[in-house]
């Protein structure tokens, strides 16, 4: 299989899994993957969107307050995806007091990086 086929197969294996998708503008979408295509566009169901307040976006190494809202069914364009994390169920809770996004603790899972023009995936 070529690299693009490998990436498609990897994304297909995540169908019905809960994903945390971070976009290049620092938004995070947490929802169940329903569908993907060859361009890595994702359809997520039961999705919550989390936004880092602009003044905190530069300092992600500390505990931050996130604003969130329920969106339901969403399409995330593959070109806008910064990273994908599988098994982000711990993010599903509504964030009231903040969320530690500086790594460490809980969750585990598979990370898929989608860098600028980079076609590699880390698993």
UniProtKB/TrEMBL annotation:
<dbReference type="InterPro" id="IPR001163">
    <property type="entry name" value="Sm_dom_euk/arc"/>
</dbReference>
<feature type="compositionally biased region" description="Gly residues">
    <location>
        <begin position="99"/>
        <end position="116"/>
    </location>
</feature>
<dbReference type="Pfam" id="PF01423">
    <property type="entry name" value="LSM"/>
</dbReference>
<feature type="domain" description="Sm">
    <location>
        <begin position="6"/>
        <end position="90"/>
    </location>
</feature>
<dbReference type="InterPro" id="IPR034110">
    <property type="entry name" value="LSMD1_Sm"/>
</dbReference>
<dbReference type="GO" id="GO:0031417">
    <property type="term" value="C:NatC complex"/>
</dbReference>
<dbReference type="InterPro" id="IPR047575">
    <property type="entry name" value="Sm"/>
</dbReference>
<dbReference type="GO" id="GO:0003723">
    <property type="term" value="F:RNA binding"/>
</dbReference>
<protein>
    <recommendedName>
        <fullName>Sm domain-containing protein</fullName>
    </recommendedName>
</protein>
<dbReference type="InterPro" id="IPR050914">
    <property type="entry name" value="snRNP_SmB/NAA38-like"/>
</dbReference>
<dbReference type="InterPro" id="IPR010920">
    <property type="entry name" value="LSM_dom_sf"/>
</dbReference>
<feature type="region of interest" description="Disordered">
    <location>
        <begin position="99"/>
        <end position="123"/>
    </location>
</feature>
